[in-house]
Amino acid sequence: MSPAPKIMAVQGAAMIVAAALIVMGILGFIPGITANFDQLGWAGRRSGALLFGTIAVCATVNIVHLVIGAAGFWFARSYAGARNYLLAGGAIYLALWLYGALVEFGSSAHVIPLNTAANWLHVILGTVMVLLGLTLGGQHDPTKRRPRLRRAATH
């Protein structure tokens, strides 16, 4: 029997998602990559900054991406943590997509800047995270031992 890998695929996936979120959070603070950087607000729907010239961002959103990314590395230390990170994080991003899709752009109900590009990002990210959590997290957890079946004695 081959030894269990040092990390499972679900842990690797959680680290890749975490790294992508950290990169996205950092890029949101870089003028040039973020268009209208001089309009970057701390929060609120009125921030005019656009990551890659398309995705509405504010400083709070960038910081949240950094924190969720860092959490991904923390939770990826274990099989169960990585699976839960992907499932919970995916659910959060899908809820954010739903919020952005149901609330009219520019309304006072928007507490963060959202636009069509941000909504697409959230639905894709949320869907990918949930699918990774379900498919890769459905593997056998190597840290948990399966009970051995006893063979019935035959006479």
Describe the structure.
- By secondary structure, this protein is mainly alpha-helical.
- The protein has one domain.
- Helix content is 52%, strand content 4%.
- The protein contains four helices and three strands, in the order αβββααα.
- A three-stranded antiparallel β-sheet has the order 1-2-3.
- β2 (50-51) and β3 form a beta hairpin.
- The chain starts with 8 loop residues before the first helix and ends in a 19-residue tail after the last helix.
Low-confidence blocks of residues: none
Proportion of residues in extended strands: under 5%
Strand order of the largest sheet: 1-2-3
Question: Main β-sheet: number of strands, strand sense, barrel status?
Answer: 3 strands, antiparallel
Question: What is the count of distinct domains?
Answer: 1
Query: How many distinct beta strands?
Result: 3
Number of helices in the DSSP assignment? 4
From the alpha-carbon coordinates, what is the Rg to the nearest angstrom?
20 Å
Question: Given the helix and strand composition, which structural class is it?
Answer: mainly alpha
Protein name: DUF4383 domain-containing protein
Keywords: Membrane, Transmembrane, Transmembrane helix
Transmembrane segments: 12-30, 50-75, 82-100, 120-138
Pfam families: DUF4383
